[in-house]
Amino acid sequence: MTGRILSVVGGMFLLTVCSKGDQGNAAPARQPSETTPPPAAASSESPPTSAGGTITGKVKFTGTAPRAATIDMSEEAACKAKYPTPPKEETVTTGPANALANVFVYVSAGLPANAKYQAPSTPVVLNQDGCRYHPHVFGVMVGQPVEIKNSDPLLHNIKAVAKKNRPFNISQPTAGMQTSRTFSAPEVMVNLECNVHGWMKAFAGVRPDPFFAVSGEDGSFTIKDLPPGTYTIEAWHEKFGTQTATVTIAGTESKTANITFAAK
Amino acid sequence: MTNRIALCSFLLVAPCSVLLSQDTTAGKLVYTKWCAGCHGETGAGDGVAAKNMIPPPRDFTGAIYQIRSTASGQLPTDADLLRSIDQGLPGTAMPGWKTRLSDRERRDVLAYIKTFSSFFADTTQHPEVLSFGNEPSGGTGEEALRVGRQFYDSIGCRKCHGDQGRGDGPSAPTLKDDAGHPMFAANLHQSWQFNGGSTTADIYHRLRTGLDGTPMPSFSDLLDQKFLTETELWRIAEYVRSLSPNEAPAIRDVIHAPLVKQGVPRAPDDSAWNAIDAYWFPLVGQVIHKNRWFAPAVTGVWVKAVHTTDSIAIRVVWDDRSQSPDPDWLEHVGRVLAAIHSDSAAEQPALWPDQLAVQFPVAIPTGMERPYFLMGSASGPVYQWRWNSSSRDAGAAGLARGVERFDALPGSGVGAQAVYDHGQWRIVFTRALASSDTASQLPFLSGRAIPVAFFAWDGSNGEHGTRMAASTWYFLALDEPVPARVFISPVLAMVLTLGLGMLVVWRAQQKTSYRRQR
Predict the structure, then answer these.
(1) Which of A159, A171, A170 has its CA nearest to residue A203?
(2) Structural domains in chain A?
(3) Which of A30, A97, B363, B392 has the fewest CB atoms within 10 Å of its CB?
């Protein structure tokens, strides 16, 4: 009888040892895409939604912007037909008075180290339309869903090239398909590309906080609801690199931080 | 009771011993000795040999693996990694290690490889093996292949792999991996080169998981969104598998050129070629003479030959994803030249043509000795037929004296006709058997073993000059008509043997009956 008890106890002990060694593979699977988006309500540590300071500014460039190359869409009649004139590459998108669009501006330092921000459950939509990504540059929070959809009646693959996040490569062979994905770690930037159409590129700034913006056609951006503090803001452009600025916010004021890139 | 304890403990320990016994310290020793040469000391895929190969060795620091049983974006399982270590990756420089390293060494090195990336230590990563199911029945039937082909088109395989699957689709010239290295869409007619294995199930698994780090996406989402069913995805795998021969082609040393009566077929797609046996000869990079070439695009040639009483025709067929010179491939050439070690100063990418050479000795050797296989030497030239895609219906003949010297012979009498069709060149060379210039232009004699070798250049892969793919010597035999005595002699011998045998039996019977009468 003692022997039997011993054998059972011994067995249980060994099982424990085994399961430790096995953890990596045997744990229940949880794909990032399957995680339920967290509730939209801000957590207690999130900043209040309407209070706080604001940083606004304009992104400009000096020098001469490179001429945008025309995209040859002759292989894809369905995409080509969506443009009255041949579309151009979006690597450098400029506006009036040397305004620079598609610049990702975010707070790179200055937030309290222990601050946690709840990702919204509202997805960021990445649309493939006319063999181009819309938007070309966007920000998304860690854990916030990115809804990737295809509005073209042809195959796109969506390949995420990342270092801090797991990369992926999925396919959407027809219009109407959509897939939701999330990123698990902050990374500026995660590159998204279509290998069927080499010109198709999008860039995602993945942030742990909601303090980011993308400059519009007029170069302007706004980051809202910042708690008081001194911040480093970094601006990223796919061709011109990065620029930083320092801004101090007290109360609910609005500060201006203009950013200038040198065209190269 | 003691036995029972022992048995119980054994049963519980055995399954997990595999994992418990992994030793990264021992694994590092194995890695440094056998793996670091290509994959680099720090696992970044930058070992000393890395610049001699396309595709490059895996960079372990990103933990991005092509051959997995898990969804796109997930880590591979230990079994996935062990499979690549054990069996190697066909079509790449990675050999299988199952017979070279012990079970323990392979397990240890696997554990060590995982230490190069923090993803494997990240407890939020939970790789899960996809549920692949089994291949549905009827996969090789005509209807199944028709369905497979239909979905091959509708999910866009042809964009990269091409209409006929030779990796020549419209997007093929733009393909690169995450690090910007040049990438090829797989030639679906050469399943023995598939890095994830050549079976229908292997192909289906790759369709489900994608090849992470490459342009090949996962098609699993299509099942979830009911764009197609699992059976239909299996049909695509079956169709793809049907494009390749059942087995990797065997290498046979002697090309038999049968004698035909109606004149040799001069067009590559002449139906007379259908009845002729095809021979496969693998080609490898020319890595002997500088400038060496480590990344040949042409993996082999299919050869057929026929002759009449006065002419010979040799048809050479090879897969080439580009019809060079083609400006669409210029950037790809630049990527190839940047990725591969060069013996000389960096070269600007250019639009080079595709080329082919068929090589013979100047005269049929009487003994075992043949000229140097790599285009002869200064003192021992070889006789070659050459063709290039810039003037596709013209053949040249001449003498090569080493890889860098080719002297064309005027009035060589070598004809060539070429066809480029969906990622494949098909060329027929023709010449008279006899030659007026017997000193340098080989006369073709029937019933003799004539040495022959092949060389190919893919211009859109940066190949020209000494940068080429080469074979060793093989043989060409012009079959003689079978003389009538070959058929009559055995019959005569049989009749005679039978007759003699009957005579012996008759004599023996005579003797027996004589004795009985006595």
Answers:
(1) A159
(2) 53-262 (2.60.40.420)
(3) A97
From first to last of its 518 residues, chain B has per-residue pLDDT tens of 445 444 444 444 444 444 556 789 999 999 999 999 999 999 999 999 999 999 999 999 999 999 999 999 999 999 999 999 999 999 999 999 999 999 999 999 999 999 999 999 998 888 999 999 999 998 889 999 999 999 999 999 999 999 999 999 999 999 999 888 999 999 999 999 999 999 999 999 999 999 999 999 999 999 999 999 999 999 999 999 999 999 999 999 999 999 999 999 999 999 999 999 999 999 999 999 999 999 999 999 999 999 999 999 999 999 999 999 999 999 999 999 999 988 888 889 999 999 999 999 999 998 889 999 999 999 999 999 999 999 988 899 999 999 999 999 988 899 999 999 999 999 999 999 998 888 889 999 999 999 999 999 999 999 999 999 999 999 999 998 777 788 888 899 999 999 999 999 999 888 888 777 77
Could you give the C-alpha distances from B394 to A113, B390, B423, in angstroms and in order?
A: 74, 9, 20
Best mutation site among A190, A192, A196 for testing chain B: the one with the most B CBs within 10 Å?
A196
Which chain B residue lies closest to A3 (C-alpha atoms)?
A: B1
Find chain B residues with C-beta within 8 A of A195's C-beta: 160, 171, 174-175, 215, 217
Beta bridge partners of B458: none
Residues of B in contact with A23 (CB under 8 A): 123
Give B216's contacts in chain A (Cβ within 8 Å). 169
Q: Residues of A87-104 as b/e, b for ≥16 C-beta within 10 angstroms? A: bebbbbbbbeebbbbbbb
CB pairs under 8 A between A and B: 133
For the stretch B163-167, contacts whose Cβ atoms lie closer than 8 Å and that sit 24 or more positions apart, written own/partner, are: B163/B422, B164/B189, B164/B243, B164/B421, B164/B422, B164/B423, B164/B424, B165/B189, B165/B240, B165/B243, B165/B423, B166/B319, B166/B321, B166/B422, B166/B423, B166/B424, B167/B319, B167/B321, B167/B423
Model pTM above 0.90: no
